[in-house]
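Continuing the series of single-chain predictions for the mutant panel. This is the parent chain; the variants come on the following pages.
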Amino acid sequence: MDIQTLSPDEVILWQWGFVKLNYTIVYTWLVMGLLVFVSWLATRRLSSGPRISHWQNLLEVVVGAISKQIAEVTRHRPDRYLPFIGTLFLFIVTCNLLAVVPGFHPPTSSLSTTTALALCVLIAVPAYGIASQGLWGYLKLYVQPTPLMLPFNIVGELSRTLALAVRLFGNMMSGAKIGAILLAIAPLFFPILMHVMGLLTGVIQAYIFSILALVYIASATRREAEDQPDTDKE
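Parent structure:
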């Protein structure tokens, strides 16, 4: 991708009318396929015995770490949140880590991808809130502590969705641009350093996006957490 290219959306591989196939779509499906393949490798020979495969061991470590973080933030059992939050984190972190591979352009450096992820969070927050508190119980959150807060709460819901999308896009796009500039200036000195920084930044951004989504969901279900102080903390 040329240094002047701001987004993989701009690189069109094929077009027929208004239908376009660009780097964002291609690499998004590539990441999805990779995650499905690794999941198949990790789960095809699951065992509860003393000897387990390396893939299963890796899977248990990842799932355990995500579950622990979910439990600490929500004070609920992590089972209900793990599929959504785990998928968000794994997709974003895989996209970001693969950015160090020559020729790979992370979908997370596209505003369309980060917007789609943020919209998933926008839908998930009321879905979890309604599932845990009922429709009326969730809607009452928008008029607390006073009905005058209704427009402000709605604007806040939309603005934090926009912030999620722009934050991830801005960090990934700016990181890629800065790396490209530094590599063009000093190609013999910066490659290793930029790869290490890219890996670290990718993991941090995936964690921030996922933890913010989790905080928003926990806020929408906080009344249930207050009603169940003991059983869901274990």
